[in-house]
Task: structure prediction
Amino acid sequence: MSSPLLEVEDLHVHFPVGRGRDRQLVRAVDGVSLTLQPGETLGLVGESGCGKTTSGLALLRLVEPTSGRVVFDGTDVRSLSKRDLRSWRRRAAMIFQDPYASLDPRLPVGESIGEALDIHGLHQGKQARRDRIGDLLERCGLHPRVADRYPHEFSGGQRQRIGIARAIACEPDFIVCDEPIAALDVSIQAQVMNLLTELQQDLGLAYLFIAHDLAAVQHVCDRIAVMYLGRIVEEAERLDLYRAPQHPYTQALLSAIPIPDPVRERERERIRLEGDVPSPIDPPSGCRFRTRCRAVFDACERIDPALQEVADDHRAACLLHGEVGTEVTG
Amino acid sequence: MSGAPEPTPEHDDSTDAEVVLSVRDLEVSFGTKRGRAEVVRGLDYDLHRGETLAIVGESGSGKSVSTLALTKLIPIPPGRVTGTAHLGDTDLISLSEAELVHVRGQRIGFVFQDPMTSLNPVHTIGRQLTEGMRHHLGLSEAAARDRAVELLAKVGIPSPEDRLGDYPHQFSGGMRQRVVIAIGLSCDPEVLIADEATTALDVTTQAQIIDLIAELQADLGMAVVWITHDLGVVAGIADRVLVMYAGEVVEQADAPELFSRPRHPYTVGLLASLPVLGDTERGDLAAIPGLPPPPTSLPPGCGFYPRCSFRSDERCATERPPLREVVAGHLVRSFYEVPEEQSRRASAATRIAIEPPDVRDEGVA
Result:
């Protein structure tokens, strides 16, 4: 296999809340490691508050990581100066969930796309710029003529296409897609997923696809990483994860996803997770999932499990697969 | 609780059960700057005791408005509602505002999508729970309080006595939705309307809430109208399904039939466009091209005509197809039914190549 495009090691993002004596830390991302090959799609799934979006933002330094290493094609992203960071961002773009919020309502959509070109000095000159914007819109299934229109004149799906056109404007190698289809209607979601897949094939893009919809993730991703409370708890090839989930949280998550087939849906057993996700301010000692896990045993409180190889190209952070991890002190 | 609990009807013979809500020719429109928006264009259905009816559709299909309009929870004017909706012997549409007050929350309970907006942030949970019971059932403060504790316990909120004095922000999203359900059930309604009740929740919480509503329904024998865009949820809970598009029912059938043999081009398109867990295919999803029509300029013929891949002669463009019963209990609003082979190919049942993992014991030490 070629050298990875992106390597993330032990990424932490902590946010302070409160002041003075009440100051506490929200450990939104608390030790995430992942790698991404060129042209590959890695899915990052988990429930609200698990840190998946913050992880995506932190790799692009749209929020500053607290610690950890992010290496992109040999460049240590965390050590880049402000200026170098700006030019590096040509290679790494982002698509956001809400296309309403991510486009400037007072700017014709062509200008929103053009801004990205101007920042990096690409396709300058009136005609060249106009042509490029037209090409990008067309590439994303819109007529070049719509460049002069404003965001409110488009439907949600069309706005997401504009967001995608802007993301690919500077020919990036890597795009963080943060819930790119969550705000869209079912019949439109498929259109956008197809577009993302097509662009990936044509342009050789690598995606970090952040979503909570596991069925969509399984469709578009090569590998899937599951997050819980700031950590990756399992990572595997897309079908492997579904066929043989190894972490009790992944098992519960998969069993909770409704399948649009009444026969299977009514026959199958669910793992009921009791209670709520603990606070990321004060996560449980040892394994973070132990307070809701049906397979919990005494070691889970003592040892913080490491992500270990449990099968070929399949990692899980669970002590059932061997008591590998960090002993909790104190 | 009123009366002795009746046995819950089986899925198959729900048609023998008593009809609690009967909707006929329901039309809802709004006056807008761009002309009249026809949001619901003639809706008919019967809801039986203990039954779960799912209304599915995308944004703007009219699924929410059709139920909000039953108790005039839409602004009138600009809204206009015609048709009939009999809850028992009462025609809801002809009721005055004063009379409707005794229906809303009492005979029909509601659970909406976002518990943060359906709960009042400045009042305690206890006050919000007891308000309806004191008003509708005439309970004393102490009696309403006792019942509130009982309801919170029933919806799975730990140490309910201690939580009555808490405010909505002190609960998690899933717990808040449980409170909203408790309020919806507080007056022992005949019908519970769950409008995207689990859409804002995470899947594991969604599973808890779905189980909870099903248990309560079996206990109390109420009928549930479940409005959602999530076909997976529908597959798990619905007895009968109405599929709405552009303000009309385009297909209506029992859930197993609808999912295994969809017949309307829109339903087939919707099912085919869904990514399904356990489907190993990675090719393009069969997306439905284009967008739904705006309610102010609906096509003259079939509402789905501009996006339909099964349309054929002139008739589809000019004539509005009637809702026809094509096999017993299965109604389709289309001149052309999707052939069996294409219909089966779209259904999740045939696309799932890997079975859902058996979770009964796996991973448990």
In short: Chain B touches chain A through 62 residues (CB under 8 Å).
